[in-house]
């Protein structure tokens, strides 16, 4: 904290995933903010934002759920920090739509039985770290640089799209994750699939779709030489981490047919397909690790694709 | 529908339906000049019989029923790539939302009802608990979809990793959520909202 400057402090909307399947994102976010001496206070009694399913079937319901959350957030001081890319997208979309659409705003106000509070800035953890705390200060705070760690930064869909809603970074060529990784001492790799969709919403209803899309993402990261992938969304994490074994079973086994051999070897440079495990890290886990936070408080035990061998290998544990 | 001639007539053109889609999505379909950029970037277009640009074209021709008879809208992942890239500001992701809502309202479960089922259970969870209860969501989906064995092996592993909660507590202010659902239902009944 620079003298004379107010300590950064945020209200916090974790969202449902961060209290369940993405609990390590929540744990590491809290640990990181503590290490950086940035305040974080959870909005009491927040509701599910509805994520993709709500607007898929009922736009008005989706807007109303988010508007209700935004008014609950008013009770806590500080801009609203959001870690989940889906919650972030829904809350920002609601502000954007209701500011521009009088009729919808009125309907929402009837639904939530009160005025829609639309003015609290909603910020993703990435922009808080890179812009508000600041890359320079972040770099200065690094205690254990992530030297030699090659990371594929994965944006997915909702962090940057459509551009007028999240206003986070360029919607076709963002760099905020790469910049952050460099500040932490890691090496971001250049890869093709950093903004491709993982099929998050289909994880329950159409796992086959998820396997196909996620396989392409993992494959692209391996080809680029990444040791691991960094995400900023619990849904991306779920698909890429939890289903990695299934993906391998579906796509990894070498094809024993003649054509499989010919095309397979062509694709994989003559060797068997690369089936390395790729640990999937949350941005907050990597940042906290670099800040010297003990790995025990980062939730690594909750992850399916064990990151510890890689971290030991790079002498980061 | 592929390779079949499409007959356009007053009977097949349902302009009222298209107007509803435009009203719900807040997006014009007439702006589209069929450049195909939306479909080129759509991660799901290979799963669809009508890729995004054709969905808009069919809407321009008043052929909403052809879209609803297929599965395209249920394979859209809501990734917003189409909306982001359209040079004419056609908000295709919002149009997909509107089409799903109209299909849901008109037909209830369709042959693609797994997606509807998952979405509906998700929303039921909000109404009952205020937040998602992932274990119940997964279990209910498997029961209702008849996929009893699906993800059976994943469940215990996730529980042991602390990723799925075994128990769930309701939000203290759950009555407020019920109020939101009720008031929206009332508004719709009175025709005050779409
Ligand atoms: S990108 Fe826009 S203009 Fe081009 S085909 Fe798609 S909807 Fe039409
Ligand atoms: S929002 Fe739907 S239609 Fe548009 S690009 Fe994504 S998956 Fe395709």
TrEMBL record, chain A:
Domain Cysteine-rich, chain residue ranges per copy: 11-91, 152-241
Keywords, ordered alphabetically: Oxidoreductase
Source species: Geomonas oryzisoli
Signal peptide: none
Keyword Acyltransferase attached: no
Official protein name in the record: CoB--CoM heterodisulfide reductase iron-sulfur subunit B family protein
InterPro entries xref list: Cys_rich_dom, HdrB/HdrD_reductase
From TrEMBL, chain B:
Gene3D superfamilies (UniProt xref): Alpha-helical ferredoxin (1.10.1060.10)
UniProt name for this protein: 4Fe-4S dicluster domain-containing protein
Coiled coil: none
Entry's Gene Ontology cellular component terms: plasma membrane
Keywords, alphabetical: 4Fe-4S, Iron, Iron-sulfur, Metal-binding, Oxidoreductase
InterPro entries: 4Fe4S_Fe-S-bd (IPR017896), 4Fe4S_Fe_S_CS (IPR017900), HdrC_iron-sulfur_subunit (IPR051460), Helical_ferredxn (IPR009051)
Domain 4Fe-4S ferredoxin-type: 22-52
Membrane-crossing residue ranges in chain numbering: none
GO molecular function: 4 iron, 4 sulfur cluster binding; metal ion binding; oxidoreductase activity
């Amino acid at each position: 904290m620079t003298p004379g400057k107010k300590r950064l402090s945020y209200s916090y909307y974790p969202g449902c995933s961060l209290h369940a399947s993405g609990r390590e994102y929540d744990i590491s976010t809290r640990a990181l903010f503590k290490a950086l001496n940035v305040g974080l206070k959870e909005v009491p009694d927040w509701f599910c934002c509805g994520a993709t399913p709500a607007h898929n079937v009922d736009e008005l319901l989706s807007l109303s759920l988010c508007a209700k959350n935004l008014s609950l957030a008013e009770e806590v001081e500080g801009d609203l920090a959001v870690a989940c890319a889906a919650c972030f997208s829904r809350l920002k979309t609601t502000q954007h739509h209701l500011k521009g659409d009088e009729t919808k705003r009125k309907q929402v106000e009837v639904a939530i039985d009160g005025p829609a509070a639309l003015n609290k800035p909603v910020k993703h953890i990435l922009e808080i770290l890179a812009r508000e705390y600041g890359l320079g200060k972040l770099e200065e705070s690094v205690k254990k640089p992530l030297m030699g760690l090659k990371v594929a930064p994965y944006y997915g869909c909702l962090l940057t799209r459509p551009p007028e809603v999240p206003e986070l970074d360029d919607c076709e060529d963002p760099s905020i994750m790469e910049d952050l990784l460099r500040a932490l001492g890691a090496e971001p790799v250049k890869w093709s699939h950093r903004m491709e969709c993982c099929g998050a919403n289909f994880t329950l209803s159409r796992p086959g779709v998820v396997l196909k899309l996620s396989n392409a993402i993992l494959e692209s990261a391996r080809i680029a030489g990444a040791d691991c992938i960094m995400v900023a969304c619990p849904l991306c994490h779920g698909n890429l981490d939890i289903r990695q074994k299934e993906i391998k079973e579906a796509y990894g086994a070498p094809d024993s047919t003649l054509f499989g051999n010919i095309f397979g070897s062509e694709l994989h440079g003559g060797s068997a397909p690369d089936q390395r495990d790729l640990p999937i890290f949350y941005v907050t886990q990597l940042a906290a690790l670099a800040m010297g936070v003990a790995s025990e408080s980062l939730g690594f035990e909750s992850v399916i694709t064990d990151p510890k061998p890689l971290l030991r290998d790079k002498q980061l544990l | 529908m592929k390779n079949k001639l499409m007959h356009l007539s007053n009977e097949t053109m349902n302009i009222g339906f298209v107007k509803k889609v435009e009203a719900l999505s807040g997006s014009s379909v007439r702006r589209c000049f069929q450049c195909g950029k939306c479909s080129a970037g759509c991660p799901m277009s290979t799963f669809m019989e009508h890729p995004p640009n054709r969905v808009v074209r069919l809407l321009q021709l008043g052929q909403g029923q052809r879209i609803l008879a297929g599965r395209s809208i249920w394979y859209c992942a809501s990734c917003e790539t189409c909306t982001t890239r359209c040079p004419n500001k056609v908000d295709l992701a919002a149009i997909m939302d509107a089409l799903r809502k109209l299909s849901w309202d008109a037909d209830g479960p369709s042959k693609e009802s797994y997606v509807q089922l998952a979405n509906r259970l998700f929303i039921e969870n909000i109404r009952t608990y205020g937040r998602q209860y992932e274990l119940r969501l997964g279990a209910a989906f498997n029961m209702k979809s008849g996929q009893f064995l699906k993800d059976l092996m994943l469940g215990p592993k996730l529980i042991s990793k602390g990723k799925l909660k075994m128990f769930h507590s309701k939000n203290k202010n759950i009555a407020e959520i019920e109020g939101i659902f009720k008031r929206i239902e009332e508004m719709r009944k009175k025709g005050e909202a779409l």
